[in-house]
Task: structure prediction
Amino acid sequence: IILKRYFFTIFTIIFIALMLFFQNEVFQGASSGLLLWFQTVLPTLLPFLILVNIMQKTSLIRQVSRLVYPALGPLFSVSTEGCFAVLTGFLCGYPVGAKVTSDLVRDGRISRQEGAYLLSFCNNTSPGFLAGFVVCQTIRDPSLVLGTMIVFFAVPILFSFLFRKIYSHKSVGWKSQPLIRTQRIVSLDLFDTSIMNGFETITKIGGYIIVFSVLLELTKMLPLADTLAGQIGLSFLEITNGVVILETLPFSFAVRYALIMGLCTFGGLCAAAQTSGMLTGSGLRILPYIIEKLAAAVAASLLAYFYIQISGM
Result:
């Protein structure tokens, strides 16, 4: 703990010093991060965050969970309300899955043990981001959309079978938790609270994106930043810039695609930091999550590589 405290203290001091000496790079990084947040993340995630907040405070969450439970419950072996975290984690993108999972734990809807299990596989990149930005805009090959989606869904589904055993999940199901009282209708007060909570979350996400965008610009000045290893390392700081960096590397397409899918599965250090911020007060730990995501990233890279080789692209 002491070493960890000294590490972050020294890192913060160095980071502040670099910001003072390289203000132009800081400005460029902060500008690009702000534009990324304002033009892409804000309009994409904020509506989902507001909707999720409303559903969690009303009986809608129970109705949606019961609706999808016959399909998701047996497949992932989760409780009824745990299905809501699976649904949002697969469809909404980082870090909504982590936010919903930690909210369910804090509200007492699911146990901390089930929350840790859910976090291991249901906090993922948005399918829209994969299909739109990664495949169509960056790789520029729409024919890969279907295969990419198969890899994207297959890895967390397969790993859920492994992680449920690690978390000592019994086949009879998770222990039911006492339900908290929810509203039956959406009132103006609830709508207002949900909006403010959504803006609080999206602002926190924006802060992480800006900080990591600045860090990316500063890291580019390091002596080894222009090397192949340096470029790969830089790509894992932030997923959007990282995908662009990986696509320009002098590798075969199969290797580039495999690296990109690995990055999208892991989410980058920025997504990990966002996830950590969502877990505050839930008792869920970030270190096991990072290890689990790295394992899934390796599996996704291998699966993506073999997919390209088999398909002959």
